[in-house]
Amino acid sequence: MTTRREWLRMTASTAGMLALAPKFAWAQDSKSALITRAIPSSGQRLPIIGLGSSATFAQVARSEDQQALKAVMSKMVELGGTVFDTAPSYGASEEVAGRIAQELGIAQKLFWATKLNVASRGGPADAVAARNQLENSFKRIGKPVIDLIQVHNMGDIKVQLPILREAKQGGRVKYIGITTTFENQYAEMIDTMRREKLDFIGTNYAIDDRFAEETILPLARDRGIGVLVYAPFGRTRLWNRVKGVEVPAWAKEFGASTWAQFFLKYVASHPAVTCITPATSRPANVIDNAGGGVGQLPDAETRKRMIALVNSLPGG
Ligand SMILES: NC(=O)c1ccc[n+]([C@@H]2O[C@H](COP(=O)([O-])OP(=O)(O)OC[C@H]3O[C@@H](n4cnc5c(N)ncnc54)[C@H](OP(=O)(O)O)[C@@H]3O)[C@@H](O)[C@H]2O)c1
């Protein structure tokens, strides 16, 4: 296996990679390792940066050439990442990632976070269809015990959460939870977090999208629920806002050389966050993003300064 240093030496020889150098600056310190956080319900520690698989990952998964995704997944593991967030509804992502992980021999090493949802928005879920979807995920992922399965987008919690609970009791799923990134489902998510015993939730949280800080993250801490953070870049939103803008020099004080690291370190510095799963289809961005989960994190004062900077950008 190529070490970080060897990899840097190999890639530093190409002009294109040199232009990307800030993305890799953190990896020059061979001691740098991803920060880990404990899952509240078990104490199992997870590296704070994982990988998501909707957005561009899903687009590439649909294409014929999936070599880039192989490189993305192996690079994540090489850098110490384990959490892979997917869903049966992300096009071919779950199936393609399952196959790649088996080819690479990393399927058992990964912490698979997939989802369950056969209900169309707001409608009822058919229990038989839900169980079939669950069985399909087991086939695709190829692990006898799936690490985490969450009810996707709050789809018919009454029918689907008990199916997950039963799978957990039967030892087939280690952790269960619920997800949403839709504003009109936050109230139901909060209510479910108060009522049900959950290991995890998954929700959107980014430096310019801080609704979760009001109730969801404090409640997760109170109730001992782990948090997977989705859309830490707002998919394309934050990238559009920083187009042509330099990362401030003071971001180096907490080890951020790129905007990705700036955005991820803001999210990672919230104590309720267990793991962030940015999606990417590019190995170079996997390295960049891992840099958002190593070394120092911003303190409370720095977090305010970061928000003020982002608020001053266009598109707010
Ligand atoms: N309800 C749910 O359960 C739910 C909802 C939303 C999201 N999620 C999960 O959360 C994951 C992340 O959210 P998301 O995919 O919506 O958006 P995101 O992670 O905020 O953004 C992904 C976008 O950022 C780009 N990107 C990634 N790293 C970059 C870097 N270092 N530099 C520049 N661009 C970079 C990617 O393009 P490149 O490919 O070019 O890098 C992609 O276009 C999803 O993939 C999914 O697994 C779950």
What can you see in these coordinates?
The chain is an alpha/beta fold. The protein has a single domain (45-311), classed as NADP-dependent oxidoreductase domain (TIM Barrel). 41% of the residues lie in helices and 14% in strands. It contains 14 helices and 10 strands. It has helices at 4-12, 15-19, 21-24, 55-62, 67-78, 93-104, 127-141, 157-169, 186-195, 216-223, 237-241, 259-268, 283-290, 300-311, and strands at 36-38, 45-47, 51-52, 83-85, 111-116, 146-151, 173-180, 200-204, 226-230, 275-276. Strands 3-4-5-6-7-8-9-10 form an 8-stranded parallel sheet. A hairpin with a 6-residue loop joins strand 1 and strand 2 (45-47). The longest helix is centred in the middle third of the chain and has 15 residues, at 127-141. It binds NADP nicotinamide-adenine-dinucleotide phosphate. NADP nicotinamide-adenine-dinucleotide phosphate binds at residues 52-56, 85, 115, 152-153, 179-181, 202, 230-236, 239, 260, 277-282, 285, 288-289. Residues 49-300 form the NADP-dependent oxidoreductase domain. This is Aldo/keto reductase. Residues 1-27 form the signal peptide. It comes from Sheuella amnicola. It holds the Pfam family Aldo_ket_red.
